[in-house]
Amino acid sequence: MPRNLILGRIQEEILSLRADHTIRVGIDGVGASGKTTLADELAARLEAAGREVVRATIDGFHHPRPHRIRRGADSVEGYYHDSFNYPAVCEAILHPLGPDGAGEFRRAVYDFRVEQHVDSPVETVGPGAILIFDGMFLFRQELAEHWDYRVFVHADFHVTLNRAIERDLTLFGSEAEIRRRYQARYIPGQTLYLDTVRPFDIADAVVHNNIPQTPTAHFASDAGNPEGIDT
Description:
This protein has a single domain, classed as Rossmann fold, CATH 3.40.50.300.
């Protein structure tokens, strides 16, 4: 399926939503699945359609390193439970942009690359804005009620590991360390999320992204409709 058709369908479904608050779109997926790229592309399309877009990511809401590794640097449960500050995500951006919020938000509270808190400015959006927020573990219970539209970007773990080796060499220092970290902590933690939350079952759109140029997708709105995009 051509990528532009899938992006167009997601865009169409988001633009069809009606709300008095900012439409909050969660772009979920395992590490290196391509969720950030898809989120950037979708944001650009929505801006081209004349909508105000807020672009943010879960990477701005890590816990400090001592909290992240308090169960051990290779702990699978620690990766899943301790990586991100979900109350801060809700307080800084999801609730303020929701139906009971004032529209004043912050994009980040912590920079994990330098391990420092971030004093990001308070921003305001107008009516009709759309939040495009990407990251891992977005559909878990702490955040679930805040999404108005959910996209899950899937890629097989052997694919994502190869992408991580190309992407994360500077961050981790060697291919061997990337493989060790992913196989010991990241892939098992992401599998725990898939098994616990079952994001495939609750997403409005699932994009299968092993081959980014020609992904496939299925949409919840096509349930019972064999003519929907599911190739």
